[in-house]
Amino acid sequence: MESNEWNPGKLLETSGSYWKSCTLHAGVKLGIFSLIGDRPRTGQEIAEDLGGDLRGVTMLLNALSAMGLLSKKENAYANTDISKTFLKKDSPQYLGYMLLHHHHLVESWSKLDQGVLTGRPTRSRSGFNEEVVRESFLMGMFNMAMNLAPRIVPEIALSGRKHLLDLGGGPGTYAIHFCLKNPGLKATVYDLPTTRAFAEKTISRFGLSDRVDFQEGDYLEGTIQGTFDVVWLSHILHGEGPEDCQQMIGKAVSRLAPGGLILIHEFILNDEMDGPLFPAIFSLNMLLGTENGQSYSDRQIREMLAQAGVRDIRRIPVQTPNDSGIIQGRI
Ligand SMILES: C[S@@+](CC[C@H](N)C(=O)[O-])C[C@H]1O[C@@H](n2cnc3c(N)ncnc32)[C@H](O)[C@@H]1O
Predict the structure, then answer these.
(1) Nearest-atom index, ligand 1, CA of 144
(2) 234 lines ligand 1 (CB under 6 A)
(3) If DSSP codes are grouped into helix, strand and coil, which group holds residue 231?
(4) What is the pTM of this model?
(5) pLDDT tens digits for 247-267?
(6) Does the Cβ of 256 fall within 6 Å of ligand 1?
């Protein structure tokens, strides 16, 4: 449970905080921070570049300045250090794709009451096929994983391991970082055919095309080819219901050689399922976007692993921004 004390001010602030979210999203969506770049620009110049209404653009620029994401001097707006680092598209630490992904979720979140009553998603997977929606999802996952992997990978002992399966690995960010850290390791990224091009491009960018390959497939309906001594399931359980997760874990375990290691990385709830905050709220995001997805508790994940014949199950202590955790076991 959240420990902070509530008061009228905090209630109002929480209730209206989506205004700030939308202001930030509009700034990123319109590319304001990239347009400003490294030199201050006037509202007039920015409105002309955008082909937008001066009154509206000026209000947005002033609100972003009030939020501390721009600084205004003599009618010109400049990026702050933070916006230069995280909101300007050519920065290596650009977070804009994840913010745009959040923006694409807003409509479904505004119907949360309906989702709760019906128990059904309020957004459809078909929207996901739109290029811009899919790009922000894939690039957002990639940016988040790029940020996290260098912190997580050193905590996981893989010395002597030869071949890792990154199930639902997306662009293969974790497979790449595991291979960079463990020179004797090869990896296979298993994901839907639509992810192949992005994954192969990313793997090649890291110079790892000879050690990381891509296997197309559906982790629910399809088969996985090959035998591995490590399987890594990162942020895929939350997209499926308990039965499918059990089946997926069973399938992954069946591809492990004796002594093989399974590692699950997820937003993990406590056993009462009332915290930490991010996994609890993220579960609602899965209600709105999937048929049966949810956040799982530590106990639920351990039970699924045990049911699949996994032993020596334990939590690996890691500190991550959104309270994700890792549970490992061996067969
Ligand atoms: C939330 S992302 C996680 C990506 C990556 N593991 C990470 O932690 O950054 C979920 C991934 O699962 C993939 N995926 C979803 N449904 C799938 C399915 N039925 N079979 C295979 N992959 C699937 C998606 O394409 C996406 O890359």
Answers:
(1) 9
(2) yes
(3) strand
(4) 0.93
(5) 999 999 999 999 999 999 999
(6) no
Ligand 1 midpoint to CA 233 (Å): 9
Alpha carbon distance 293, 287 (integer Å):
6
Count of residues in the chain? 331
Q: How far apart are CA 296 and CA 242, in angstroms?
A: 9
Distance from the alpha carbon of residue 245 to the mean position of ligand 1, in angstroms: 13
Atom of ligand 1 nearest to the CA of 222: 20
Cα 44 to middle of ligand 1, angstroms: 43
Closest atom of ligand 1 relative to the 218 alpha carbon? 20
CA distances in angstroms from 5 to 12, 62, 279, listed in the order given = 14, 32, 20
Per the CB < 8 A criterion, the answer to whether 128 and 192 are in contact is no
pLDDT digits (tens, 9 = 90+) for 169-193: 999 999 999 999 999 999 999 999 9
| Structural contact between residues 36 and 70, judged by C-beta atoms closer than 8 angstroms | yes
Let me know: does 248 contact 240? Beta carbons within 8 Å.
yes
Find out whether the beta carbon of 252 lies less than 6 Å from any atom of ligand 1. Answer: no
The DSSP result for 96-131, as a single string, is: HHHHHHHHHHHHHHTTHHHHHHH-S-SS-GGGGGSH
Q: Are 163 and 226 in contact, with CB atoms under 8 Å apart?
A: yes
CA distance 206 to 213: 13
DSSP code of residue 302? H
157 CB less than 6 Å from ligand 1?
no
